[in-house]
Amino acid sequence: MLLAERCESERLRQIIKELQRHRFGRRAETLPEDQMLLGLEDVEQVAAYNETAQDVSAPEGREARARTRRGNRGALPMHLPRIEVVVDIEGKTCPCCQGELHRIGEDRSERLDLVPAQFRILVTRRPKYACRACEDGVMQAPAPIRLIEGGLPTEATVAHVLVSKYADHLPLYRQAQIYARQGIELDRSTLADWVGQAAFHLRPLHDRLLGKLRQRPKLFADETTMPVLDPGRGRTKTGQLWAYAADDQPWGGADPPGVAYVYAPDRKADRPIAHLAGFEGILQVDGYAGYGKLAERGDVQLAFCWSHMRRNFYELATPGPAPIASEALKHIAEFYAIERDIRGRGAEERRLVRQQKIRPLAEAFERWLRAKLALISQKGKLADAIRYALSRWEGLTRFINDGRIELDNNVVERSIRPITLNRKNALFAGSDGGAEHWATIASLVETCKLNDVDPLAYLTDALTRIVNGHPNSDIDQLLPWAYCRQDLKAVA
Questions:
Q1: Distance from C-alpha of 369 to C-alpha of 372, rounded to nearest angstrom
Q2: What is the distance between the alpha carbons of residues 47 and 374, in angstroms, rounded to a whole number?
Q3: Residue 284 near residue 258, CB atoms below 8 Å
Q4: What Cα–Cα distance (Å) separates residue 363 from each residue in 116, 355, 396?
Q5: C-beta separation of 396 from 406 below 8 A
Q6: Which residues lie below 8 Å from residue 282, measured CB to CB, with a gap of 6+?
Q7: Which of these, 308, 271, 275, 269, lies nearest to 291 by C-alpha position?
Q8: At CA 308, angle to CA 307 and CA 313, rounded to 5?
Q9: How far is CA 315 from the centre of its chain?
Q10: Confidence of residue 293 (pLDDT cuts 50, 70, 90)
Q11: What is the mean pLDDT of the chain?
């Protein structure tokens, strides 16, 4: 009885520590990159301030510091327009002999200049013609097709609104405030109308993107909450935004990376089954049990995430002394050290290295976990962490025999991060339909980023082509990875 009470007390203490860490501690195992960059910005600003003060107080070293800056700044892109300014001497007569000076060369320097974003108005004129002889009928060229019939914006303007909202995380009301500063009064509801119409035209692209990803032999999957306004109850409900991503770059695969988001009002296991209908291959996921039903069909093999498994031990080791959890972290660190060395190598080479170096480590780690589980209370959080790992051991170690599989699910978790930033700024989607629009446009924007394609130029061109009747049979030409920088420069 006393032993049971002690175990229960220890379990409750651990729960309290976990809640304290969640409430007062860091939310991630490592410092978030964005937060770290904010701190570095301040440090760099102070350094620049001190360097400027040094230039003023010690001008004799200014040229040396300027040479250092010129050596570190790199080259400016060649596609940017150059506006040349010639700074010449006033007279070309030699001050000594009064002879004519001749040019022997020049110094050339480049600086990056910025012209602020500027609205302009495109005026379309359509002359009318009539015949003086027969006076029957009027001839006039047909009006160009518009994305927003009877509306003000060009396709480029609508694309800018989409990119500002879904790539730069600016809600529509903030965009309306920015435009108002330039004298353009656009109501938030007007911008919302533009986004909704654009989402309708882009929906086939989203469906095709998801369909192309389903044809891949390996995908990552994850989901995040999506608060959605529920007017009937006067509050928000919790929907789910599912993310399905592919990225073969870590093992040198030829297929381009991509990610497709799909909104669903709940987190039922039937959702990924419907989203991935027809998919056959390896699905790398976290420990959510709902994916198990997908694997029951036999066409899908689950590969589990070591990062999620590690987190359970990390949460135990962080609050205070936890020898077993800390030792588990050391075991897992050995796996990641080997993976860092083989990142970017071919799939077969990765498989051979894993079988040679990681397989013995995995077998030893499994034996260690089982031995420790037999020695500790079965009701504690540590036992839960060990059972979590052992119950998913086959999926956790599937990467050893397949060089295409990653150690963790971080690829898709990185794709989830922009969604969380948007959610933080917008707070919630206005409806289920708004959440679906969110998934449609964010899929195209994030796939552009993964393929180093400018989302603004891409969306401008894609919307223009769609409005002008781009054939559905050639829809693959409008997927983000079908674009390259040269194509988009020609469009611009």
A1: 5
A2: 56
A3: no
A4: 60, 11, 12
A5: no
A6: 217, 218, 219, 300, 301, 302, 303, 398, 402, 404, 405
A7: 269
A8: 90
A9: 26
A10: confident
A11: 82
